[in-house]
Amino acid sequence: MVRITKKNLVKELTTEIISTSRNWYLLFGVFVLVWAIGIYALIQQIDKGHIVTGMRDNVVWGVYIVNFIFFMGLSYAGALISGVLHLFKSPWRAPVIRFAELITVISLCIGPFFIFFCIGRLDRLPFLFAFPRIQSPITWDVIAIITDLFGCFIFLYLSLIEDFAMLRDTTDISIKPWKKKLYRILALGYVGTKKQHRLLSRAKNVMAAMIIAIAIIVYSVLAWIFGVTLQPGWHSTIFGPYFVIAAVFSGTGLLIIIMQLFRKIYKLEKYITRKHFVNVGVLLLIIAAFYGYFTFSDYLTKWYGSVKMDKILIDKLFEDYYLMFIFANYLGILIPLIIVGIRKFRTIRNIVIAAVIALLGLWFNRYIIVVPTLETPFLPVQDYRMDFIKYSPTWVEWSLTAAGVAIFGIFMMLVSKIAPLVSISEMEVSEEVQDQ
Amino acid sequence: MKKQAPFVFMLSMLPGLLVLQTLDAQDAGGDEIQSPYIEFKYLKNTEGHRILDAKIFLAGELGLIPLEGLPVKFYTNYEMPELLGEAITDKNGVAHYIIPENVALPVDEDNNWWFYAEFEGNERYEMTMEELTVMDVNLRMSVEENEGGKKIFLEAFTVIDSEKIPVSNQDIFVFVPRMFSLLPVAEGYFIDGEAEVEFPDDVPGDEDGNLTVIGRFNDHWQFGNVEQRAETTWGVPSSHKVAESHRALWTQIAPRWMIVTLTILLAGVWGHYLFAIISMIRINRDGKRSE
Fold it and tell me: Out of A134, A195, A214, whose CB is closest to B254?
């Protein structure tokens, strides 16, 4: 086995911090372009109102809410995965854990913006804080998201302290003076004394445990916004755990995709190997099995109950939404199961394909949870126009959706200019473990 | 790279295909001409106004969807239809036309009026029409309360060739208006043009007991809808004030258990955050000391 020295680690994992490649500019430019289109769409929406979206009186939630749930799910999944990997000290976690932490915080910053896009009277948003009613699941969600955001920031920051200290002290690479100054501030005077190490380690353990718990609670709260609503398809007791499992499923998928993207762009093949893809892939496999079970259980009980509106909803899913339904609830689960489940299919490329399918499947699963239900209300629809009965997202909504993905990429790339995407300190520990 | 191209192509096509399915939802049925239904009714109200109501709607799995903004033409005279007037359907899908008092309506050999409502159709909806025949009837109503109870006296007659003909052997109903529709509360029977109906004692009114009482031929096969209304104080006074509940899901103050649970949860979580922040401060202090 080739021994990786600390000097090598610092050099190879900080290439984007010390210089900027052409690929970086190219990809960043693409993301900024997509983001700019999203901003233009947003200006259109602010100027002309929500009429430029596909949302109307009846279907009041559309792609924005789908994106909100999706991004929040990614965030909670990132928190769960990074928390579990940290607490259980998985020996292979080192090159992966930072990605999970970043997914958590970045998705958590992006998700709530889709709520702002969805709200018709944004001027009334402060009322939610000025006159909160804690009986309202919306208030629970606001409290939960803020709490989660703080917790995840703290956890991410704690895990970065050692790397910041290393970058502050290193002489092996040339870092710009302003960045050195920044690292000096961000490293909090960490020099690796026994006491500091103990304090940091304990704080990280506590926060890792906390963010696991918070992720479960917060995503359950989000699920309860649907679960406590008397609507066909939503009023379900298993929505809490179902959403949590679904979130981890999508987050694991995204983690694999991000690992592959940055592995290629930042040339991290030496650190992120097939072993890591297989390990995260196996996690995807296990979660896929659970997710499939929950999905089946949810739809089976609704179908068997034969409540009139549930039946209409399920008929609608198999008729108007059959492509999405089949993809989200059959292919999106079975393909990852088959690819990762059969040993000879477990190549990096195949696992990434499975992850992409899982991620897309989850997005469409969210879509068919939100939209068809609102198209199937208990009370009769009060407007005859087809756009009041059916929902179709408009270019404005798609642009803002793409902008959400782009801003995720922009944040990831900006973070990579300040902090190593593969944790140097974790890699060091991991190398020690291997040596022992 | 070449080897991966088909996979990349397939993966990028997949979301496109699915997104396409979301895009055509609002256009579903957009090009297809739909067949609406029409419900046509005649009403003669307390003031003696003759009103034609044509409701146009679509019937689907979600129930009846009223169609707003459609022009409906109303005709009379079966032998040689004459246009009475036109009305546009409102948000409930109802085109409401009041026949002017000065219009003399022709009658057929059975002494019936013939009415015809037609929506001519447009690029989205097919043409639909309905007709009805009614015989003009005069309804009078008086209310009286005495020791024997609350009584409603109804008189009904038709006029044929200037001759007053009392209505006989026909049912009439007494209604009170409720939130969504008229509630039948009593029933009477006409003999020689007169009916006497006893009004029940247990119908809720407003807080002073005010109650509108309606004597009505309701969707009658011969007379259509003909009604007379009277204001009474026969209702049971009822208070619509919601009983104040101190702590509930719908009150200003949340249930105590909810506040306690949330406080414990938040205190627990933020307490741990505080611990992490204090640890960071101590790390910083220790660093300064080491310098």
Answer: A134
Q: Facing residues of B194 across strands?
A: B155, B191
Tell which residue, A345, A255, A331, has the closest CA to residue A288.
Answer: A331
A240 assigned to some structural domain? yes
Closest A-chain CA to B23: A392
Which chain A residues are within 8 Å of B31, Cβ to Cβ? Answer: none
- Residue A317 tokens, joined: 């899913």
Burial of A20-45, coded b for 16+ CB within 10 Å and e otherwise, reads eeeebeebbeebeebbebbeebbebb
CA angle B232, B238, B242 (to 5 degrees): 145
pLDDT digits (tens, 9 = 90+) for A293-349: 999 999 999 888 888 888 889 999 998 898 899 999 999 999 999 999 998 888 999
Residue A375 near residue A58 (C-beta atoms within 8 A): yes
Task: Kindly determine whether residue A191 and residue B266, on different chains, have CB atoms separated by under 8 Å.
Answer: no
User: What's phi and psi for A192, nearest 5 deg?
Assistant: 85, 25
Q: Do B273 and A151 touch (CB under 8 A)?
A: yes
Give the domain ranges of chain B: 37-135, 138-232
Rg (CA), chain B: 33
pTM over cut 0.80 = no
Nearest CA-CA distance, residue B130 and chain A, Å: 21
Return the residue matching tokens 């309506």.
Answer: B105
- Number of domain units in chain A: 1
Cα-only R_g, chain A:
23
Does the distance separating the beta carbons of A150 and B259 come in below 8 Å? no
Distance CA A257, CA A363 (A): 15
Q: What type of residue sits at position A314?
A: I
* Residue A327: inside a domain: no
Structural domain containing residue A44:
6-286+385-435
Nearest CB among B15, B65, B262 relative to A384 is that of B65
Residue A218 lies in a domain: yes
Find out whether B164 and B140 touch, Cβ atoms under 8 Å.
no
Q: Do B259 and A193 touch (CB under 8 A)?
A: no
Does residue A142 lie within any of the structural domains?
A: yes
Q: CA of A215: how far to CAs of A209, A219, A357, A379, B276, in Å?
A: 10, 6, 24, 35, 18
B138-232 folds as Immunoglobulin-like (2.60.40)
Tell me the CATH number of domain B37-135, given options 2.60.40.1940, 3.90.700.10, 2.60.40.10, 1.10.10.10.
Answer: 2.60.40.1940
Tokens of B274: 């505080």
CA B43 – CA B172 distance, rounded (Å): 15
Q: B173: left (phi > 0), else alpha (psi -120 to 50), else beta?
A: beta
Question: Strands (DSSP E) along chain B, which ranges?
Answer: 37-44, 50-60, 63-66, 71-76, 82-88, 94-99, 112-119, 128-135, 138-146, 149-160, 163-166, 170-177, 182-190, 194-199, 211-220, 224-232
Question: Cα(A66)–Cα(A45) distance, rounded to whole angstroms?
Answer: 18
- B-chain CB neighbours of A324 within 8 Å are 18, 21-22
Per-residue pLDDT of chain B (291 residues; tens, 9 = 90+): 556 666 666 666 666 766 766 666 555 555 678 899 999 999 999 999 999 999 999 887 667 888 889 999 999 988 889 999 999 999 889 999 999 988 889 998 889 999 999 999 998 899 999 999 999 999 999 999 888 789 999 999 999 888 999 999 999 999 999 988 899 999 999 999 999 999 999 999 988 999 999 999 999 999 999 999 999 999 999 887 766 667 888 888 889 999 999 999 999 999 999 999 999 999 999 988 877
On the question of a common fold for B37-135 and B138-232, the answer reads yes
Nearest CB to A364 within list B18, B280, B290? B18
Separation between Cα atoms, residue B25 and residue B28, nearest integer Å = 5
**What are the φ/ψ torsions at residue A21 (nearest 5 degrees)?**
-80, 165
Q: Report the amino acid identity of residue A174.
A: S
